[in-house]
């Protein structure tokens, strides 16, 4: 582990995420190591990470090997103790709303977007095609219900005075487009205003990483800008309607971006590979068996 941390130092990491297999004592060691160097540390766990001084948690709830520290039920519900801990601590959650793919049932325009068709590698476009197809089946009803629960938690934390930082878990979720489905889901069904949702991906994300010259338009901040058609404060979907961007003082149009890449998407996706068997996967006492098996698969998706 010390060699990995040295690697993080040499590569100038901005954030270190403790994953589920790291023992609690090592999580504490990693968090303290990061803080000594001014680096943020996050965790897959709310508890015990919150008692170790961690700076944030990834996911409303995801892969979890401790059993006692689950933060969300199978149908997407978080109890009040979870919400209270986040609001009292002011510790950011990055929700990574995987179930936001359910929004493709009524709007799959991101899938047919010419930028996505041109820039996605074939295997990523196939994954997105599979998500769009799944959203249009009855199997997506559970995802829709869970998304309602997850976004209700996000809204309760934010409106309760807590902090939410947008994030997608790419490459496990689809690049680029999943940020937009996350923001859209925060607004509907989540109930946030578009401005509240957008701040999770701009000023609140910058504040979390302690980079005050990003994520806001103000004197002294970096002037890398995105110019949109429409008004995302009225209609969150307009955040994806990019006309041009300004990067380092140079404007780039969408035509510039996509013109050199041939649009050749395939139609099939590779199946994920299961992680090796582990004794902790033998018992299914808190969640149902298929949920635990899916959680084991989700960390080994091809990318
Ligand atoms: Zn994760």
Structure description:
- The chain is an alpha/beta fold and 303 residues long.
- It has helices at 2-10, 24-36, 80-89, 109-112, 114-119, 122-135, 141-159, 177-187, 194-201, 203-208, 254-258, 289-298, and strands spanning 15-18, 40-43, 56-58, 93-94, 225-228, 242-247, 250-253.
- The strands form two sheets. Strands 1-2-3-4 form a four-stranded parallel sheet.
- Strand 3 (56-58), helix 3 (80-89) and strand 4 form a beta-alpha-beta unit.
- The longest helix has 19 residues, at 141-159.
- The chain is globular, with a radius of gyration of 20 Å.
- The protein starts with a helix and ends in a 5-residue tail after the last helix.
- The model has no long low-confidence stretch (mean pLDDT 89).
- Residues 44, 58-59, 62, 169 line the site of zinc ion.
Q: Which H/E pattern describes the elements? A: HEHEEHEHHHHHHHEEEHH
Structurally, how many domains make up the residues? 2
Low-confidence stretches: none
In DSSP terms (H or I, runs of 4 or more residues), the helix count works out at: 12
Give the strand line-up of the largest sheet. Answer: 1-2-3-4
Proportion of residues in helical segments = 25-40%
Core attributes:
about 300 residues; alpha/beta; four-stranded parallel sheet; three-stranded antiparallel sheet; 7 strands; globular; binds zinc ion
SSE order and pairing:
Elements: H1 2-10, E1 15-18, H2 24-36, E2 40-43, E3 56-58, H3 80-89, E4 93-94, H4 109-112, H5 114-119, H6 122-135, H7 141-159, H8 177-187, H9 194-201, H10 203-208, E5 225-228, E6 242-247, E7 250-253, H11 254-258, H12 289-298
């Amino acid at each position: 582990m010390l060699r990995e941390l040295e690697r993080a130092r040499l590569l100038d990491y901005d954030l270190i995420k403790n994953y589920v297999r790291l023992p609690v004592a090592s999580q504490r060691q990693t968090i303290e190591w990061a803080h000594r160097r001014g680096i943020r540390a996050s965790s897959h766990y709310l508890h015990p990470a919150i008692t170790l001084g961690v700076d944030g948690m990834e996911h409303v709830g995801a892969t979890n090997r401790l059993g006692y520290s689950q933060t969300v039920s199978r149908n997407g519900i978080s109890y009040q103790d979870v919400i209270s801990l986040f609001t009292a601590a002011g510790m950011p959650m990055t929700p990574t709303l995987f179930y936001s793919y359910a929004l493709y049932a009524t709007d799959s325009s991101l899938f047919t977007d010419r930028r996505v068709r041109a820039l996605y590698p074939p295997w990523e476009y196939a994954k997105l095609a599979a998500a769009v197809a799944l959203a249009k089946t009855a199997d997506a009803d559970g995802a829709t219900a869970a998304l309602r629960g997850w976004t209700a938690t996000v809204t309760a934390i934010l409106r309760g005075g807590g902090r939410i930082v947008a994030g997608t878990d790419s490459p496990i979720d689809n690049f680029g487009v999943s940020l937009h489905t996350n923001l859209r889901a925060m607004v509907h069904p989540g109930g946030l205003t578009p401005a509240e949702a957008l701040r999770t991906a701009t000023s609140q994300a910058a504040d979390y990483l302690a980079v005050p010259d990003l994520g806001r338009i103000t004197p002294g901040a970096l002037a890398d800008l995105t110019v949109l058609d429409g008004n995302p404060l009225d209609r969150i979907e307009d955040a994806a309607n990019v006309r041009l961007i300004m990067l380092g003082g140079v404007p780039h149009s969408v035509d510039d971006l996509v013109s050199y890449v041939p649009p050749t998407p395939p139609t099939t996706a590779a199946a994920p590979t299961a992680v090796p068997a582990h004794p902790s996967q033998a018992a299914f006492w808190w969640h149902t068996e298929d949920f635990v098996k899916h959680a084991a698969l989700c960390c080994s998706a091809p990318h």
